[in-house]
Design a protein that fits this description.
Elements (H helix, E strand, L loop, with lengths): L19 H8 L11 H14 L3 E5 L2 H11 L7 E5 L5 H8 L3 E5 L10 H4 L7 E7 L8 H11 L3 E4 L7 E2 L2 E2 L6 E5 L12 E5 L2 H11 L24 H12 L1 H21 L5 E2 L6 E2 L5 E4 L3 H10 L16 H7 L7 H6 L3 E4 L8 H20 L1
Parallel strand pairs: 2-3, 2-4, 4-5, 5-8
Antiparallel strand pairs: 1-9, 6-7, 6-11, 8-9, 10-12, 12-13
Length: about 375
């Protein structure tokens, strides 16, 4: 295979925009006197809830905090089980364990990398207190069968839309289909130029409970904080971050359209170049959120190193499944055993840079991939 010197990284999988409009928004609350739990956060919650078509948004300090207050609001605790996909980020297992419950990891569908009714239903027991649906890479989970199962068994469904904000399932916005949705704003489709998150629900009582939990259990209307409704946390989102989030939200649909066009170019261009990678299937009922463009690649680790030398950052979401982590096995006292599809995907997946500022960089990435595999074939010959 031909080699050349290492280039500076030109194209990254992580995108962190911060322009003049965002800077102006971030500075707007700095004179005070309100730095959190104020008008910018209120407006951000209203605008996000209106965008999703759900009743309430609850802004917090991270996506993890959003999930945790959702679990506490649902009463998840010791003796309960929470089902989530085995190939997800560690957040779900982390929050489940901290709530005192037991994580249960379902395998995923080979075509979409998502959980589905076939992988979820066999794991439901009388102890199942929630199903956390993750719309992996931005592709919607097939929600109707899971929601039907959950309604029959009286199990709340929590939607993780960190990869999929703006995506839709059969015309319905992701994050507004389950009982509670949540999202991270840390380098995601909507960014706050730092850490942040939000939970969504149509249930007023749950929204009130999550708002109390995020700020020490206080009722906001109690100016003197003389009454604590419950033992809570300090999970507030700053006014500056909320202000940046409002700007980013206003651009979400435009940016998602660009990501979708990049995905179309990647899928067609990689096939045209005969690059031997396999994209995941996009179902006809899905409007993909496209936070990540992920393919299954032979010689994955060699490809990543080659691309890095050509100035292209590739990533793996996620290389080590959380249920394989020794710390989690030790904490729960249970090794769940193999999840065959998840285990196989973890050795094959690679995320290509596909953010809205890529431009013709998409063509450059594909050209370098074609060169890698042409060299690999020549080397074998």
């Amino acid at each position: 295979m031909a080699t050349m010197g290492t280039h500076p990284i030109r194209y990254r999988t992580v995108w962190t925009p911060f322009d003049a409009e965002m800077r102006e928004a971030m500075l707007r609350p700095t004179p005070g006197p309100v730095y959190y739990d104020g008008p910018e956060g209120d407006a951000f919650e209203r605008e996000m809830a209106a965008y999703l078509g759900t009743g309430y948004g609850v802004a917090v300090s991270s996506g993890t905090a959003a999930l945790f207050v959702a679990m506490v609001a649902l009463g998840i605790g010791p003796g309960d089980e929470v089902i989530s996909p085995a190939n997800g980020y560690l957040t779900v297992a982390e929050c489940t364990i901290h709530s005192g419950a037991q994580p249960v990891y379902c395998d995923v569908d080979d075509a979409t990398a998502n959980m589905d009714i076939q992988t979820v239903e066999p794991l439901v027991t009388p102890r199942t207190k929630a199903i956390v649906v993750i719309h992996t890479y931005g592709h919607p989970v097939d929600m109707d069968p899971i929601m039907d199962l959950a309604r029959r068994r009286g199990i709340p469904v929590i939607e993780d839309v960190a990869h999929a904000l703006g995506g839709e399932y059969k015309g319905r916005k992701l994050g507004a289909i389950g009982d509670i949705g949540f999202v991270s704003f840390a380098r995601k489709c909507v960014t706050v130029a730092g850490q942040g998150g939000m939970a969504f629900t149509a249930n007023r009582e749950r929204a009130t409970r999550m708002r109390q939990l995020r700020r020490h259990g206080w009722n906001r209307e109690d100016a003197y904080r003389s009454h604590v409704a419950m033992v809570g946390f300090n999970f507030t989102l700053s006014e500056s971050h909320a202000a940046v989030g409002r700007v980013s939200l206003s651009r979400l649909d435009r940016h998602n359209a660009i990501r979708a066009e990049h995905a179309r170019r990647y899928t067609a261009g990689l096939a045209r170049r005969a690059v031997p990678v396999r994209p995941f299937t996009v179902m006809p009922w899905a409007k993909h959120g496209w936070l990540h463009y992920v393919v299954r690649a032979p010689r994955r680790d060699e490809l990543i190193q080659f691309m890095k030398a050509r100035g292209v950052e590739c990533a793996i979401h996620y290389k080590q499944p959380v249920y394989r982590q020794p710390a989690y096995i030790a904490r729960t006292g249970e090794d769940p055993g193999p999840r065959p599809v998840t285990d196989r995907l973890a050795t094959e997946i690679v995320t290509l840079p596909s953010h809205p500022d890529m431009g013709d960089g998409v063509e450059y990435v594909m050209d370098q991939m074609a060169e890698f595999y042409a060299g690999a074939d020549a080397g074998r010959g």
